[in-house]
Amino acid sequence: MFIPKGKRYWYFNVYDDMGKQRKFSTRVEPSKPGVKWSEEKKGIVKKAEAARSRILAEKGYGTPRFSQERKAVSFEVLFNEYYERHSRVHKKSHRHDLYKGRHLLEAFAGVRVDKITPLAIERYKAKRRKVSGPATINRELALIKHIYTKGIEWGYCRENPAKGVKLCKEPPSRNITLTDDERMRLIESCDHRIRPIVLVALHTGMRQGEIMGMRWENVRFKGVPCPHILLPVTKSGKPREIPMNHIVYQVLYEQPRNGERVFNRSFPRYSWEKAVQESRLNGLRFHDLRHEFGTRLVNNVPLPRIKELLGHSTIQMTMSYLHTTSLELKEAVDYSCENSPEWRNWQTQRDDIGAPLVPPINSVHVFAGGTKNKKARKSGPFTMPETGLEPVRGIALTGF
């Protein structure tokens, strides 16, 4: 029960017979001048308790959280109930729940939901660490946690044993940025089946499923102010329009129309893997082309526009798709140098004694293996003089 100081309302939460939380509020008498709140609160609490009992009686709610608790069931029954009532109805990725759930079903087969403890889930996590990565295990832990959350709501159990289980620490996201040479090698290594798909991905940032699901009726070449691709169904649940540049326009215009879909066949996995191998870009995934699209835009396009093009719900998600290159980092530290007072002072002293201009520089990185956030980081690149050149005598960098 919550009674705000000096207010005319008080609040309390109760649970109905199915475990659903209900919130109620009612009025209390206004604060009296000259009376301490501690004294006044005692009388208010008595009136509030009486009103609470009256509301519970009127609504027909019992004071226990589950006045009609269901009989305990096995984990398989709860999982099937979760999949049919929640996952298939509300989640587009419900098939992924079946894939992740098969490991949970193997581990907790025949076990009642009220007999699964946090220790049992910790043992499951330790066993899975031997064969799977931390990201995969975290998705499975998130699934069992939500299964129990819905089970509590439906009256199958009282507590969530996965609530106190810590997630595995995941490694930082991959930072793959293609150079111009690598990009051209990839395109030239593609055969006629995968090349148009790769070009569309590089110039639109569309997901693989969005590209393979494109329909001709949603590709607008003419009759609109801007030629674009309409995606009526996306991962975020919102329709999205993607303008076509010259390359995408030409690729799609030359694509043969053999059916309702732009690309009638399934994704040519063999052609993609062969192109990656021939271009010597081992480890490159098709989804990395989506990151490549966002990274190419980051220097010239505002983040809100990149967010709309990629179809993200938040700026934070967009930021995880953008990666900086070493050349961009070098430009940043050079800007810091050129706008510093010590640099201007150094240049002035050079001009006074007739010293030559700054010698050619190389880019030097300082690799920090252990940082405060426990992620490896390259500091720099820093601008350093060429090896063998002597520094100018009689000049001191002010501030160093």
What is the top-level CATH class of the largest domain?
Answer: Mainly Alpha
Q: From the coordinates shown, what is the CATH architecture of the largest domain?
A: Orthogonal Bundle
Residues in helix, % = 40-55%
CATH topology of the largest domain: hpI Integrase, Chain A
Number of domains: 4
| Strand order across the largest sheet | 3-4-5
Distance between the termini: 61 Å
- Describe the global form: extended
CATH level 4 superfamily of the largest domain: Intergrase catalytic core
**N-to-C SSE series?**
EEHHHHHHHHEEEHHHHHHHEE
Overall mean pLDDT score?
77
Q: What percent strand?
A: 5-15%
Task: Note the total helix count.
Answer: 15
Map the helices and strands:
Elements: E1 9-15, E2 21-27, H1 37-59, H2 75-90, H3 94-107, H4 118-128, H5 134-154, H6 180-189, H7 195-204, H8 208-212, E3 219-220, E4 228-231, E5 240-243, H9 246-253, H10 269-278, H11 288-297, H12 303-310, H13 315-319, H14 326-338, H15 341-353, E6 361-368, E7 377-385
Helix pairs in contact: 2-3, 3-5, 6-10, 7-9, 7-11
Please sum up the structure shown.
With 400 residues, the protein is mainly α.
Essential attributes:
single chain, 400 residues, 15 helices, disordered C terminus
Give a verbal description of the structure.
The longest helix has 23 residues, at 37-59. The strands form 3 sheets. The chain has a 3-stranded antiparallel beta sheet, with no helix packed on it. The protein has a two-stranded antiparallel ribbon with strand order 1-2. The protein is mainly alpha-helical and 400 residues long. It has 4 domains: 9-59, no CATH class; 75-154; 180-319, Orthogonal Bundle (hpI Integrase, Chain A); 326-385, no CATH class. The protein is extended. It contains 15 helices and 7 strands. α6 crosses α10 (269-278) and α7 (195-204) runs antiparallel to α9 (246-253). The model is unreliable at 63-69, 359-367 and 381-400 (pLDDT under 50).
